[in-house]
Write a structure and sequence with these properties.
The protein has about 120 residues and is an all-beta fold. The chain has a single domain (about 5-115), classed as Galactose-binding domain-like (Jelly Rolls), CATH 2.60.120. Helix content is about 0%, strand content about 35%. It is built from no helices and 8 strands. It has strands spanning about 5-15, 25, 30-35, 45-50, 55-60, 75-80, 90-95, 110-115. The strands form 2 sheets. The protein has a 4-stranded antiparallel beta sheet, with no helix packed on it. It has a 4-stranded antiparallel beta sheet with strand order 2-7-4-5, with no helix packed on it. A hairpin with a 7-residue loop joins β4 (about 45-50) and β5.
């Protein structure tokens, strides 16, 4: 089985919540997201940390737009790892910082595909 140096980490959004627990990335960069089969419709945004998970900030692009990923149930989403370079901890949000969407029915585990920044 070809793994391409990928490792998967789970980010859990609890039932009735919109923001996941934090996931330590260490010296790895986020390269993909595997969405769960059940998902209350919402795109994804992120809170990120560069200090190991002490301080989190919403992730924005250079134009000042909140970094948003179009998401849906049962989907694998490819990401540009350069966007997440240097980030060593992350939280996944259902919805945006101004319009969060609580997940309902059960906890949701979003699988994060990460790989070493050097490869």
């Amino acid at each position: 089985m070809l793994t391409l140096g990928l490792e998967y980490k789970g980010a859990t959004i609890l039932n009735g919540a919109s923001l996941s627990d934090f996931v330590a990335l260490g010296a790895k960069s986020l390269v993909g997201i595997e969405m769960p089969a059940a998902w209350t419709a919402a795109n994804l945004t992120f809170q990120v940390s560069t200090d190991g998970g002490t301080t989190f900030n919403n992730l924005y692009d250079a134009s000042g737009n909140e970094y948003t990923v179009t998401a849906a149930a049962s989907r694998y989403i490819y990401l540009d790892r350069n966007v997440f370079f240097g980030i060593n901890a992350i939280k996944v949000r259902s919805g945006t910082s101004s319009a969060a969407v609580n997940q309902s029915g059960a906890d949701r585990v979003v699988r994060l595909a990460v790989r070493p920044m050097s490869s």
